[in-house]
Amino acid sequence: MTDFDTQALIGAIRGAIRTDEPVYLHAPLFEGRENEYVKDCIDTGWVSTAGAYVTKFEDMLAERCGAAHAVAVVNGTAALHMALLLAGVGPGDEVLVPAMTFVASANAISHCGAVPHFVESAPDTLGIDAAKLRVYLAQMSSEDRARIKAIVPVHVFGFIGDMEGLAALAEEFGLVIVEDAAEALGSTYKGKAPGHFGAMAALSFNGNKIITTGGGGAILTQDPDLAARARHLTVTAKQPHPYEFIHDEVGYNYRMPNINAALGCAQMEKLDGFIDDKRALYERYMSAFGDVSDVEIIAPPEGCLSNYWLNAMRLDKGAPRDDILEALGNAGLHCRPIWRLMHRLPMYEACPRMDLSVAEDLEARIINLPSSVVLGRDL
Length: 379
Ligand SMILES: *Cc1c(COP(=O)(O)O)cnc(C)c1O
Known about the structure:
- By secondary structure, the chain is an alpha/beta fold.
- The protein has helices at 6-17, 34-44, 52-65, 76-86, 103-111, 130-138, 142-146, 163-173, 224-233, 258-268, 271-288, 321-330, 357-363, and strands at 69-73, 94-98, 115-119, 148-151, 176-180, 188-189, 200-204, 217-221, 295-297, 304-305, 311-315, 336-337, 366-369.
- The strands form three sheets. It has a seven-stranded mixed sheet with strand order 1-8-7-5-4-2-3, with helices on both faces.
- α2 (34-44) runs antiparallel to α10, α3 runs parallel beside α10 and α4 (76-86) packs across α5 (103-111).
- The chain binds pyridoxal-5'-phosphate (PLP).
- Pyridoxal-5'-phosphate is lined by residues 75-77, 101-102, 104-105, 154, 180, 182-183, 204, 206, 217.
């Protein structure tokens, strides 16, 4: 397809974002009490790994997601790593994870000494294709299957889909579910937030996520024992004591600093407004793309109320993705392709995997569009 109408595409994007200025893919927005809370940390000296904002941020997250417990950590990768360790993942184990994800999902598995085992994505949910995975697991030898301990569904771009299919599969094959919900704070599926579809869920508050703490992450869980273990292990496994340094196992320095949590508290106060603006932007893209041929905006799956973190378009088969990306960049529109699939990265080439033809097709066709909160507002 050499006759792709790039000008029509650029026109549609410009129509949706309603500005002719250059725009980023996703810029953070600080217009609440961020300054006040961060200044409070500096003024009081409570900038580091203790302080009231961390607990307050955890309470806000837990309440927002209807989770019994939230444990704030230094980033989303650390949250995933910790959750997988607590799920019992260790050397020699395999963990099922989509090939179509950000590299952190696979890295966290490697950090446990385990091996990522790449699975197929579904074209409508962009998450794991549970039906295909079931067929794949069923035809595996029992020795091969015995190595597989856990499964990491990824809520891509804020989409959550077919969690029933996944739960049934996990039950049938005895797998622990650890959700990679890094992109899905504020999303629900059939009324439930991340943290309700697995033993634990990992969130991220990196600078490009729907809310940011600079760098940060959190583990959500309903299980008090897992939460207690996470709290202990993320602060170097230190026993509470007025002055002695007693550590009872090899722990991690993963606790979120107070100054980051202060930023997070201010951002959480704005989350609902961010989601409203992002939904408005998504709807503008939907109507602006109505007349553009050879491309469609990807809609959230059935049952999902998305946070609309990143808008994405799917090009028709054969469209010149890289030429389009280049043209968009030249037009001042910061867009990006979906991630290069994990099994095509050098360190993960030799990992076990199932047929990934849908993921490979999506990889060639998905481009993310500028999605900052401000773009959804009436200027
Ligand atoms: C951002 C992200 C992570 C990792 O979060 P960090 O805070 O950057 O470590 C993991 N998985 C997915 C799908 C992400 O988008």
